[in-house]
Amino acid sequence: MHAYDVFFLLFRSLYIALFRYIFYIATRSCYRAALEYSKLLLLLDPQSDPLAILLAVDFFAIAAEDYEFLLNLYAEWNPSRSLHLLPNFAFSIPLVHWMQRFRPRRRAQPRSELSAEEINLMLQDALIMFPGFLPRLMKHTHVGGTNNLDKSLLFGKEVLLSESEALGRLLDVYVSQCHYYWQEPDVLAWLEVNVEAVLRLVEPVIIPGSSTSACPNVEPDPRLRMYSEKRKSCYLQAPRNVLRYLFLRELPEAPLLLPPNHGSQKIYPLDPFPPLDSINSYDPEAERHRQPAGSGGFFHALFSSLWPSTSTTDDNEDIADIHALIAELGLHMEEVQTIGEQPTQIADTEDAGPPNNLEFGGEFD
């Protein structure tokens, strides 16, 4: 079990305090500090990422112009964590490569090793995988060559048919955070070129000599169907860490989602959507049921009381260590377990009469 496991109530307060502080300093444009604190929050529990801070790491890295960190993180974690399935990484990675290659920055950045064509292909792949990005971005800016987007096969029909509510929230979060960087004129021109390339790949085209005005593309890109099926199967519902992120961020463009069967249960601002097997070490009754009976005797109970959230998964090893310590002291376990169990001598009160009742002769003022 992790040293700062989110299953324990007292540790969740630390996570939430860090999360709120990160976005507080981000509102003050302290993006470098926000990025460093995001790294800290992520390292507390990198496996489960209980507050889904990965949804904001790319935003802070771009704002702080720390492109190399974001690319290294993606290269290290994508094979095992499938970061390419998160819309923010799917779009931010080609954006960062493009910025490294074509835009000089204040901070010295290594030039992207990818060619311009490879960067374009990455962006086109992201547009086909997440077509809902473009309609959301167009609420903030105009993208040339995208008139009548509702009639588009990819950016209209596919968004309605294959985009789940959970995926829609991920796109809402990304666009609300990063739309500023996609609105810059040079980035917008690059995006328009790739949108036109995607439309040529997947949209119906007019075939010369045909009696119909529009026919299916002669060789439609196979990703159109493949990614549609992937969107339907991979984003059925949002995990609890994403629900916590939505609740704590309170973004107007990304409203809160509720887990299935939530009903009318309360959502506590200081502990939103706790784990289903949450451990409340402040509840003595729950802690007593969680501890196995007779595990370690007096000293084990003493050490557990000093740190009530100690994990019980390694109890056997802990008991063995306690036994070894007692053996070094020259004691036997049977002797130690009798400590604190000696009967207390109580004075014989059989002959003593009942206490005298106090009689108040006067009245209370």
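Above is the first protein from milestone M3; the second protein from the same milestone is given next.
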Amino acid sequence: MAGRHQDGLNHVIKQIGYHPDYLKEFLGTQNYLLSGDGPLRYDYRHYIAIMAAARHQCTCLISHHKQKFAAQGGNIQWLKGLQYIPKKLMNLNEINKILAHTPWLLKKSHIEKLTKGKDNWSIGELCQAVVLLAHFHCLCSFVFASEILEHPEECQDTGNNNVVSDIESSEEVAQETVEELMEKMNGHMSDFIIQDCTWDDHAYSLLNRFYNDVGTILDEKFKVAYDLTYYTMGHKENVDTTIFRRAVWNYIHRIYGIIHDDYNYSEMEGLLDYGFRSYVETVCFCPEKITKDAHDEIMRAFRHSEKVHVNLMVFEARFQAELLYALSAIMRYMT
């Protein structure tokens, strides 16, 4: 069974491999997050990955990181459930839930709660933790959206998985997520204007300050995912896909309440139809609910590699959105 789970992750890498430039950035980033410099112990990093993947019931990722957790000398008792883990890790579960499903609800008070008291997190530790949480939330989106696991039922079967049963999954908060989205769309929630906390001017610098050069590492990965093009769209050649890529990225930010005030939102109206938007929303908020039929229905004329690229943009745009909310809350706490 363990080998099959590992094989499933190999299939993830195989799909990303349709885009070698991005694959290089992805592998380098993930290796650095889990094995590179940083304030968190290696076993903590893998346990945080487990917590993040459990939000979306992504059992293949959970199983993979359970193995890595054990290999790093992690306390096997922790895998029995959250009641067995240190209080410091337990305290992280609240923002794990918020970041995964309603990141716009993350507040300065959540950060303050984590950085005070006996089992407190330093700002450096917290920066690394939120990057890990966001990375693995969004990797779940890619895993499910791509329908690429050799045994996809293993990624959804949560039986006999104590960590998943202890950490509420998106199945249990799906209605809350929909209600929050409806509230936002009805104008009852303030939009996050990107100029208030930009990646380039604020979040990037904060990460580089407190978590080595991770801001630079992530920035390069975002740029590769956003700029990636082979000047094709389906059977057509010599196509400038800039407008489409910009529309996809900004639409994902928009459903997270993030507004780019220098973007003309009417541009996306004719580019992204209802089916495509619905697909993207599901991949972002409840990726475990994506079916192969739903995946096959959208982007029918696209090449397989182009569909993979769209899923990678969902991964990265969602990742950046989660980080903007998390790092904005940290910055507000620090000021």
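Note on the second protein: Residues 1-7, 148-152, 173-189 have pLDDT under 50 and may be disordered.
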